[in-house]
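Trying the structure run again after the queue cleared.
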Amino acid sequence: MKIQLPRVQLAHLPTAIEPLPRLSAALKGPQLWIKRDDQTGLAFGGNKTRKLEYLLADARAQGAEMLITRGAIQSNHCRQTAAAAARSGFECTLVLSGSAPSEIAGNLLLDQLLGAEIVWTKGEDPEQVLEATFTQAWEAGRRPYIIPYGGSNATGASAYVAAISELVDQDLKFDRIVFASSSGGTQAGMLVGVKALELATHITGISVDKPRDELQSIILGLAHQVSELLRLNLDFQVDEVDVDDRYLGGGYAVMGAIEREAIELFASTEGILLDPVYTGRAAAGMIDRIRKREFGPEERILFWHTGGTPALFAYAEKLTRSG
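Done. Tokens:
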């Protein structure tokens, strides 16, 4: 299924699908595979690169010269936005939560290397700071374009309808896809893609920061918006949106024992690196559910790696054996 939306080519696609035989054996559960969206190729890659291909095309169509978006201090979305801006000739301003840290590491280091201007919220509401930053840029004649949090609007989420079509073209079938879910766009796009292509694949999002009901509502709304944008005439019910919020732990970006174990297990069995905030938490949820036999032993499960590995370096002390 071809997505009829303007697109700026940024990602290395299709991303690889690899079996995880050693991890599968270690867990004594279902057959596990991984989709490598950590290798989309733009400044350490990640799932946001797919979304940015459509969002930058829209920005160009509107005559924008500057991209503005927001996120946490270790935001993968902000890092990829900064990289996309640099490659495509846009200015870029990132609104990051909190205040400037004493040490610069991980995604924040990359943001600066990529030439992004950083605006710190310093305790103020991030969305209000984003709007104020846009207004100031507009009044200064800089032709700004706001990319929403996580790139998750109908335009950005449409990228994961295309990603599901890419998966079909790779001629591998899975009973379930598991991944980190936060701003909702990736999961909404997958839901639309699976339904449009009539696939018997269950989509399971492991929430990294939001309660189940809140994230379900966001995803449901986005799925309907994507369907409308792509003229697919699909309808969705809340019970079709599978969100697991049992692994929120200490909160967003707080790495606990389960995330650390998941990171170490993927690294030691398959040589694959996860991040502490998103994929580490999603993998931890998947591992726990396999151990609890919530996933059938005959299932073929695809873990969709959404990227984020630069954040590992910001958590070095907590990830070391003595940390």
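Residues 91 and 189 are 28 Å apart (CA to CA). Worth checking whether this holds up in the mutant runs.
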